[in-house]
Amino acid sequence: AWIRDFSCRNPHNRQTKPPSQPLFPPQPPFSPVRSGPNAPSKPSRQKQIPSSKTMKPHSSLALVTALSVLVMPAAPAALLVIDLGANSGSAAGWDVFSSSVTDAAVTDQNAVDNDVTLSITGILGNNNPSPAGATTVDGVTVPLEANNDYVWGDNQGNGGSILFEFKNLDAGSYNVSVFAGRTNDANQEGTIWIGAIGDEPAQNTGNFANSSSTLAVSIGASDSLFYRHSPGTDWVGGTSGIIVNPVLVPEPSAAVLLSIAGLGLLRRRRVCRG
Asked: Checking CA distances to 81, which of 11, 96, 250, 257 falls within 20 to 30 Å?
């Protein structure tokens, strides 16, 4: 009670001061953080994207994958592996021919086309000098038993050639490969064609001595696949084997569907980024 405010006695001693701003703004009362289903939601600082523009990458990828599976055709037909000559033994799993045959059954490695036959005319003998060992032709492993020997028919009686004809192949696209494993040969040539015997073109394999040659062909219904081996310029050597390998080619409608699906995926990504 004895403490007095002397400033009250003289009003001229009072000084008027503007209200000062607090150093720290007032804070709301403290409330504990709650979790669980009843917890208050926090506002998001991220840019909100309308639901119509939200992209679901997993669903888009799944759509493209599903379309590619649905529209991609299966292998058109047979995978044929032919071992010509048996001097080095028979290649396991390969069809082996060392002499001329007529409409002999051929095994399809894909077990899809089981009525393919092969006719061979003009084989005069087998040989295996200077073997080369195992190799790979058009992605197919060729064991040494198939690559180390060959058949030959180089005499003037048949023009020095051997003729091969495959029948009943399913229509489709194929790679046809011929190979010769003899390492001391200078020249081997041949001709591969589709259709009939009278459709034979000029030689088209090039020189495949101690090597291989692969041509892409398209076989239609009822077409035969022909290969004629020529002795080459040195009249030495022959063909060690033949591989008929099916090629996966999407149907035109399949390619269109895949293109549309890909464009749709790109458009959704652009909309999402925009």
From this structure: 250
